[in-house]
Design brief:
- The structure is a single chain.
- The protein is mainly β.
- Helix content is 4%, strand content 36%.
- It is globular, with a radius of gyration of 14 Å.
- The termini are far apart.
């Protein structure tokens, strides 16, 4: 594990999203900072923190239908200034 990196969410600072990346330039379409992610206010109800054994197991950020394109990209930043790029595999429902 590199210095400043943890396997939990204790150092999470923010999550940035590019709804449909062109793989060349990251264009920030939206962002959630930690205080917004952990908030239970109606304004931020699209994020949810899931706990297991009193520790954060996962964070869910819900998007409106068809908001994400075929190639979304997320950048996760921690309090130490490290950035991690995540490109989820998209499941397509062809029904």
């Amino acid at each position: 594990i590199k210095e400043g990196y943890t396997k939990n969410f204790s150092t999470l600072s923010s999550v940035y999203v590019n709804y449909d990346s062109n793989n060349e330039v990251f264009i920030m379409d939206d962002v959630r900072f930690w205080d917004q992610i952990e908030s239970t206010a109606l304004l931020n109800s699209d994020t949810e923190v899931i706990f297991k054994n009193d520790e954060i197991e996962k964070i869910i950020w819900s998007f409106k239908e068809d908001m994400l394109g075929e190639n979304p990209m997320f950048i996760i930043s921690d309090v130490y200034g490290n950035d991690f790029t995540v490109k989820p595999l998209m499941e397509v429902d062809n029904e």
